[in-house]
Design a protein that fits this description.
The complex is a heterodimer of chains A (325) and B (574). Chain A is globular, with a radius of gyration of 24 Å. Chain A has 2 domains: 66 residues, no CATH class; 221 residues, MetI-like (MetI-like fold, Orthogonal Bundle), CATH 1.10.3720.10. Chain A is mostly helical and 325 residues long. Chain A contains 12 helices and no strands. In chain A, helix 1 runs antiparallel to helix 12, helix 5 packs antiparallel against helix 6 and helix 5 packs parallel to helix 12. Chain B is an alpha/beta fold and 574 residues long. Chain B has a domain of 240 residues: 3-Layer(aba) Sandwich (Rossmann fold). Chain B has 21 helices and 20 strands. In chain B, the strands form 4 sheets. Chain B has a 6-stranded mixed β-sheet, sandwiched between helices. The chains are: A mainly alpha (325), B alpha/beta (574). Chains A and B meet through helix 9 and helix 10 of A and helix 2, helix 3 and helix 6 of B.
Chain lengths: 325, 574
């Protein structure tokens, strides 16, 4: 019960931000030349003016900007994301079709980045200023400095084209008609390269944060107390240093949830994944305003949800933080 | 000097600890030898940098990285601790030698409960099961007299007060009834009444169990309170050791003597004549802090200062004393108008400061200046000290060059080398920084100086110098001083009159002599009772030592009959 009231309060607090983001985006897209109808007409290769006029009326594009914004927000209150002009389906349906790929990519990349970021960070901190630390830190810097699309392209070149170990792109073998576990394994197979590519940069960041905060915590007084109690170095690390050092990492993960969503746009484009990121890109090109606003709305909800989970986690980790504040 | 004792439990022999190359001296400890016997409290006393904490670290093998013991032995029940490997040392740490640290907030892991942290000692050194451990933890918490031990075991460190945390620390160190307890400044971060309780607890536990305690402190008052024997350290060298009574009352080494001379006496000096007229008067001042959300139910109101009235006589020094949370710092900040008060009057220079705003406030308030506690945090690390001193006058319209010239003169006045004018704060020691802080306050030619714990962060000898400087400036410049402190010894030395605060209210005020010799309020009495070593008067010790030295100088023919150490001291000072 407390959980739900807390979640509801968080969502309510985020409403003004959502309103500003959506209206801002709506108005921004009015400034871009051309509208949905222009894009549609360009696709069929032209049409006569009366039909264009009809289409504009059909999509309510002849109304004033403020009326349309008002209409959109009013529909949103009823949880109606509207109709996609390009896909001729409700926006909600289009998004739900595309959501799994993005969630899967983000989730697995996040898990990978956290796991290896933590492990390598701990290893580096334990062997600080010796060769394992130098090696890990240098690799981390390289991963952080290189753009992820470059890693994507190199990954495709090495593992798909040259070695032919992994598929170059897509989300499952086309026309294989697989079901059950086989289908899942197939998807996992296709997701290996994109996940690693997306994870690399975040892994590098988490590794650096983890290393730095481990080193900082190791200098604190309570670590000396723990050693004075006669604890072994490993036990001190696991029982006393690790949990304290995790706090900055958890904060960072929450802050970067949005960045990760942005990063998946690039990765989905490189690996031709049918995800939310590519949908957003296509909607911008085709001036599909309803779909784009829908995506923004859903991503905002996603980020709010992730931050909420991070806050709960933080309160679990640190007894000094009270989650209800 | 070194007493060779066959029964010594822990015996340190010619210990040398090297500092990494590039440090300001080669060694942290050099040729340190002492014995710690069962059933005694050996106080190791010295100023910061004297190597007293390093001694403790060396015994447990917990030295900072790159600091290594390079020579000597530390013998403990038949083995040399310096020769043991990490695994063997771990079996001794916590089990045979327990340790209590200074800062009870940071020395406990904030993410684990008190019970878990105490229980951990049992988990790694014994084979007790969970239920047995829980019971033992309860017994321990009871033995350190923590209020509500059941709740304390389940509490996290931040939920306990400083004194309770330190009790938990002691419980943890004593969990396995170690033969030796090392306490590194265990009461320094605590309020005076809490400190008295913790010292009493350590003494009781020590007597009951016959533990040998190595007690590290910088405070001679604490030494007088608790020590069986004393070892004095200076710059990594043990300069003097002996029975507490000998070292405290008949100090032999000049350094010990200078340290004792620097300890302020709790007996206030002779009453000085102060003017009848008051320069600053505070009437009915209240300040509340509000916290919590915008919902009325969650709001919390803290009365930091409640209806406080006091008067500072022209040219006088008024001390405001009290423990942490008594509202004395808030009061100081209200008086210099760093904080706005809720109601009341602050009359200064014929105007009510509390009601002034903007330009009028600026014009009046320049004559009241503040000196802050922490000489490290109160100076901007990125600006040259000279400029920081000159900033005040420049803001008030003095031409830049003139202000800088004046600042240079002020450097001389507070005893700093004018050549240091263009340096940055980190290039100064703590005492020098506090002198810069004083120069900064004096630059505006104030008539009232509000000093908020100006010497609390300083070593005792530096503290004495700064106090002397303050007294000197007061005389030279005719300053009036409002002196905020938690240290009653300091207050006794510098103040003509004293105000005692508790929970935001004034509970007693009067002349220093009155308050210190005939306290009326129970709280004042308990504060005075809590002052460590209150029956030991350093001023009297120094007087008698001086008299002895004079006698030595007078009668050269009696030299033979004196002990060799006195001879050394006498010749040094002849």
């Amino acid at each position: 019960m407390k959980f739900f009231s807390l979640a509801l309060r968080r969502f309510t607090a985020a409403l003004p931000a959502l309103f500003i983001i959506l209206s801002g985006l709506f108005l921004l897209l009015q400034l871009a030349p051309g509208d949905t109808v222009d894009a549609l007409v360009a696709q069929v290769g032209g049409g006569d003016p009366t039909m264009i006029e009809e289409l504009r009326k059909y999509y309510a594009l002849d109304q004033s900007t403020s009326t349309r914004l008002g209409d959109y927000l009013w529909r949103l209150v009823h949880l109606d994301l509207g109709q996609s002009a390009i896909y001729a389906k409700p926006v909600a349906e289009v998004i739900i079709e595309r959501l799994p790929a993005t969630l899967l990519l983000m989730g697995s990349a996040l898990a990978l980045a956290i796991f290896f970021g933590m492990t390598l960070g701990i290893l580096a901190a334990r062997r600080v200023n010796r060769w394992p630390d130098s090696l890990i830190s240098t690799l981390g810097l390289v991963c952080y400095a290189m753009p992820s699309f470059w890693f994507g392209l190199m990954g495709i070149f090495v593992f798909a084209v040259w070695l032919a170990w992994l598929p170059a792109g897509g989300f499952g073998t086309v026309g294989a008609g697989l079901t059950g576990v086989a289908k899942w394994l197939d998807i996992v197979w296709y997701l290996v390269l994109p996940t690693v590519t997306l994870a690399l940069m975040f892994l590098a960041v988490y590794l650096r944060i983890m290393r730095a905060s481990m080193l900082e915590v190791m200098t604190l007084d309570f670590v000396r107390t723990a050693r004075a109690k006669g604890l072994s170095a490993n036990r001190v690390l696991v029982r006393h240093v690790l949990r304290n050092a995790l706090l900055p990492l958890v904060t960072l993960i929450g802050l970067q949830a949005g960045t990760m969503l942005g990063g998946s746009v690039v990765i989905e484009t490189v690996f031709a994944l049918p995800g939310l990121g590519r949908l957003a890109y296509e909607s911008v090109v085709q001036r599909d305003l309803n779909t784009l606003l829908g995506i923004v709305f859903v991503s905002a909800l996603l980020v709010i949800a992730i931050n909420f989970i991070v806050d709960l986690l933080y309160a679990r980790l640190d007894p000094r933080i009270n989650a209800s504040h | 000097m070194t007493t060779t004792n066959a029964k010594a439990l822990l015996s340190v022999r010619k210990l040398r600890v090297d500092l990494p190359p590039g440090a300001d001296r080669q060694y942290a400890l050099s040729d340190v030898s002492f014995d710690l016997n069962a059933n005694e409290i050996l106080c190791v006393v010295g100023e910061s940098g004297s190597g007293k904490s390093i001694t403790a670290g060396a015994i447990l093998g917990l030295l900072p990285e790159r600091v290594k013991a390079s020579a000597g032995q530390i013998e403990f029940v038949g083995q040399d601790l310096l020769q043991l490997d990490e695994a063997e040392l771990r079996r001794i740490r916590g089990a045979k030698i327990g340790m209590v640290f200074q800062e009870p907030m940071t020395a406990l892991n904030p993410l684990h409960t008190i019970g878990a942290q105490i229980g951990e000692t049992f988990r790694i050194h014994t084979t007790l099961n969970k239920r047995e451990i829980r019971e033992r933890v309860q017994q321990l918490l009871e033995s350190v007299q923590i209020p509500d031990p059941v709740a304390a075991a389940r509490a996290y460190p931040h939920e306990l007060s400083g004194g309770q945390r330190q009790r938990a620390m002691i419980a943890m160190a004593l969990a396995l009834e170690p033969d030796v307890l090392i306490a590194d400044e265990p009461t320094t971060a605590l309020d005076v009444t809490t400190q008295a309780q913790i010292l009493k607890l350590i003494r009781e536990l020590q007597a009951r169990r016959g533990t040998a305690v190595l007690f590290i402190t910088h405070d001679f008052g604490v030494v007088a309170e608790i020590a069986t024997r004393v070892a004095v350290m200076q710059n990594g060298i043990l300069v003097e050791q002996g029975l507490a009574d000998e070292v405290l009352n008949r100090p032999q080494h000049p350094y010990t003597r200078s340290l004792i001379a620097a300890v302020p006496s709790l007996v206030p000096g002779p009453q000085r004549e102060v003017a009848e007229t008051s320069i600053l008067s505070v009437a009915g001042v209240s300040k509340t802090y509000r916290s919590g959300g915008f919902l009325p139910g969650r709001r919390r109101v803290t009365h930091a200062v409640r209806d406080v009235s006091l008067a500072l006589p022209e040219g006088g020094a008024l001390g405001v004393v009290g423990e942490s949370g008594s509202g004395k710092s808030t009061l100081a900040r209200c008086i210099v108008r760093l904080l706005d008060i809720d109601h009341g009057k602050i009359e200064f220079d014929g105007a009510d400061l509390a009601s002034l705003r903007g330009q009028a406030l600026k014009a009046h308030s320049r004559r009241i200046q503040m000196v802050f506690q922490d000489p490290y945090a109160s100076l901007n690390p990125r600006r040259r000290v000279g400029e920081q001193v000159a900033t005040g006058p420049i803001i008030h319209g003095t031409p830049r060059q003139q202000a800088l010239d004046k600042a240079r003169n002020l450097f001389e006045l507070v005893g700093l080398d004018p050549a240091a004018f263009n340096r940055f704060p980190h290039e100064f020691s703590g005492g020098q920084r506090q002198r810069v802080g004083l120069a900064r306050a004096l630059a505006l030619e104030p008539r009232v100086l509000v000093a908020d714990e100006p010497v609390s962060a300083l070593d005792v000898s530096v503290q004495a110098q700064v106090l002397e400087l303050l007294a000197d400036l007061r005389k030279k410049l005719g300053l009036s001083l409002l002196f905020i402190t938690h240290d009653l010894r300091v207050a006794a030395q510098i103040c003509d009159a004293v105000v005692v605060m508790k929970n935001g209210e004034v509970v007693e005020h009067g002349s220093a002599a009155e308050v210190f010799t005939r306290p009326r309020h129970d709280y004042t009495r308990s504060l005075l009772d809590a002052v460590p070593g209150r029956h030991w008067d350093p001023a009297a010790v120094i007087r008698s030592v001086d008299a002895a030295a004079a006698a030595v100088a007078d009668s050269g023919d009696k030299l033979d009959s004196l002990p060799p150490q006195t001879l050394k001291y006498g010749t040094l000072h002849a």
